[in-house]
Write a structure and sequence with these properties.
By secondary structure, the chain is α/β, with parallel strands linked by helices. It has helices at about 10-20, 30-45, 60-65, 75-85, 100-110, 120-130, 160-175, 195-210, 235-250, 260-265, 295-300, and strands spanning about 10, 25-30, 45-50, 50, 70-75, 90-95, 115-120, 140, 180, 215, 255-260, 270-280, 285, 305-310, 315, 320-325, 340, 350-355, 375-380. The strands form two sheets. Strands 1, 2, 12, 13, 14, 15, 16, 17, 18 and 19 form a ten-stranded mixed β-sheet that branches. Helix 4 runs parallel beside helix 5 (about 100-110) and helix 8 (about 195-210) packs parallel to helix 9 (about 235-250). The structure holds pyridoxal-5'-phosphate. Pyridoxal-5'-phosphate binds near residues 53, 54, 184, 221 and 263.
Amino acid sequence: MADPSRKEYPDTQALIAAEMPDYPSFIFSERELRACAKTFQDGFDGLVTYAVKANPEEHVISVLADTGLKAFDVASPAEMELVHRIAPQAALHYNNPVKSRREIIAAQDLYGVKSYAIDNQAELDQLAAIVTPSRDVEMTIRFKAGKARKAYDFGTKFGISENGAIDLVKAADALGYTVSLCFHVGSQCEESYAYERHIHAAGRIAKKSGVAIKRLNVGGGFPAAYPSSGAPPLDRYFESIERALKKTFGSNRPEMIVEPGRAMVTPSTSLLLRVKHVRGGRNVYVNDGAYGALMEIKFMPIVPAVRVWRGAELVTDKTRPFILFGPTCDSYDSLDQPFDLPQSIQEDDYIEMAQMGAYTQASTTAFNGFATRQQFFADKIFM
Ligand SMILES: Cc1ncc(COP(=O)(O)O)c(C=O)c1O
């Protein structure tokens, strides 16, 4: 049944005219999310899943389930509960290598999880004490194989070396689990060859361990097309993966999984912020910042496309660089990267940022009491 509280508009202009929102507002387009899901479903030859952490909003999970996604990468029991409630048939891949015994018990007993990722012998021991080894349970060994040109280096925290992975694969197999492999090249990876390098390493791990690898999960890391990104289009990544699979496994490839977060959800949400005031003709104070929707932009050199509204009219005068400050009473709450904004920008204008679907809503805080953000829906959103 349609949700009567859902506020839906044709576009941002109609939304502003009707609502004049004073809180930071996320604008979601179901059409754009379906288009991203289709890009992965058409381009990737294997099981397409979604890394819930990138945007755990209920509307995101339910649209993705409706597009036919049959599995989700979850990092915690709370994410399991969310997916289980919305898509009870979906498989849950517990691919966060950091787990407590209580969380493993919840995963197994409450949510029926049968797929776990690990990157250390201690984790295998911890899991084996709770999850009875059986070929019905998948133990996915997360390995790393060199750095890539990307925004985040996950290798500092996750992934076992190639040689370590060989031993861990053998150990998981000897216990009686079904064994798979996974890697994550790093989020916003702007180099498609990173996937090829990791797939070649997966081939060597499989060969040297002598264990039949059931599935190979190529993780997330696929880039969003921010204006500040130098990444090639996603097709290039799918081609790289296909080329490496052919070369490494020939006709004997494992079943394949992909679990994008960022690239799946980035284009489907824009962010509408309101100007609280402008100081010194240079500093613009807005109603969300580093403790909210701009948390990732605070420490990443991402610059989204922006446009400015005065009431329901676009402001089109000449632009120049401004510094953005968030609403909290804290000096950390500002952004280093300048934003090109109309030089007439003033109190109560709206700044709309495109491609804000990933790692924005997922990491808002209530710091200083700035807890409220609104959700709107629009068919056509700012890209
Ligand atoms: C295990 C795992 N899979 C997938 C993802 C999604 O990565 P991305 O948002 O770069 O696609 C992450 C992100 O942290 C992750 O930890």
